[in-house]
Design goal:
It contains 15 helices and twelve strands. With about 350 residues, the chain is of the alpha/beta class. The strands form three sheets. The chain has an eight-stranded mixed sheet, with helices on both faces. Strand 1 and strand 2 form a beta hairpin. Helix 1 crosses helix 8, helix 3 packs across helix 4 and helix 5 runs antiparallel to helix 10.
Length: about 350
């Protein structure tokens, strides 16, 4: 993508960044917007995790589960840009905020998170829920729904990977080869640090990161688009470390060995198999996703029996929190939830 009319694409390996990239970063850093939304009350807590109640009418609860490596509030980003508050007008909405992995969580495996904390959070609601998982959270929800059909009434997975080798197997395997270099970083605290996680994500699309900042340099800082950009960037830059055992399972297992698609990803000893689900399901696959390529997510739409496929022309974050998110996802998800 060109930086400006007539310019050549920037090579991230070149000696220095272009001027509009530098200007964009400076404009972002001085922008005055700060998130001020207050969290709703917690109805349950364990360790560093909380179950937040957004309210809504009585009825089937809808429990949202985000990724472990980002803050939960991407689903409740800003005034007028909160999927959870939008849906709470007609549904009882809850959010599992995983929190920062503290002393208890730093020894967790994915089984501890899924068969332990997630299932206990669902049970705390007091009745079967519709689970909605975003990105990595969709994989966690899928495993929990398979394990506990008594607790899960329906399942929605949003921008959720399954076949990690579908789009670029060599790149996924290359990511896994970095694990030995990450081990010293995890040795001291038992966690994969935030900076390391953000570097791994940056490797997925290094030029794209520069492109967005160069574009921001050309925006009116008082415009809604500029406010949206800052809100999303603040969220992206406010990451969460990952428990060491979880990092190893994701990097070596999911990316390196492609364990979900291979049928060898196990939770509490049992293989996770989407074909075993016998509940209503909704699979949202954004067509412009650079974090979870559509090819990686698409198998879930065919593997889960009777799944409803929704494929908006949106990106990974834009689908849930962007300027067109209401049209791209909020309204279609609302319609599917109402149909249950």
């Amino acid at each position: 993508m060109p930086w400006s009319a007539g310019s050549a694409p920037w090579n991230p390996l070149s000696p220095g960044p272009p001027a509009d990239l530098v200007a964009g970063i400076a404009a972002y850093r001085r922008h005055p917007w700060r998130r001020t939304l207050a969290d709703p009350p917690a109805i349950w807590a364990e360790g560093e995790s909380r179950l937040l109640e957004y309210g809504g009418p009585a009825g089937r609860p809808v429990l949202f589960v985000p990724s472990l490596v980002n803050r939960a509030h991407v689903l409740d980003l800003d005034e007028g840009r909160s999927m959870l508050r939008h849906l709470a007008a007609d549904h009882r909405v809850l959010l599992l905020d995983w929190g920062w992995p503290g002393e208890a969580e730093r020894g967790f495996t994915l089984t501890d998170y899924i068969a332990g904390r997630l299932e206990r959070a669902i049970a705390a609601v007091g009745m079967p829920v519709t689970l909605v998982g975003y990105c990595m959270g969709g994989l966690l929800c899928l495993a929990a729904a398979q394990r506990r059909p008594d607790l899960v009434h329906a399942l929605a997975v949003l921008a959720t990977p399954w076949d990690f080798h579908a789009a670029e197997a060599a790149g996924a395997r290359a990511l896994a080869t970095l694990l030995p270099w990450l081990e010293p970083l995890m040795a001291a605290t038992g966690r994969l640090p935030i900076d390391a996680i953000q570097t791994l994500f940056a490797l997925l699309d290094p030029a794209g990161i520069a492109t967005k900042y160069a574009g921001f340099a050309r925006l009116d800082p008082n415009s809604p688009r500029a406010r949206q950009f800052v809100a999303i960037e603040d969220w992206l830059n406010d990451g969460v470390p990952l428990a060491g055992a979880v990092a190893r399972e994701c990097i070596a297992g999911w990316y390196g060995a492609n364990t979900p698609a291979a049928g060898t990803w196990r939770v509490a000893g049992a293989a996770v198999n989407p074909a075993r689900l016998a509940i209503p399901a909704f699979v949202a696959i954004p067509g412009r996703d650079r974090i979870v390529p559509p090819e990686s997510a698409r198998p879930l739409a065919t593997l889960i029996p009777g799944a409803v496929l929704h494929a908006p022309a949106a990106g990974h974050v834009g689908m849930v929190a962007g300027g067109s998110a209401e049209r791209a996802l909020w309204r279609p998800l609302h319609g599917w939830l109402a149909s249950l």
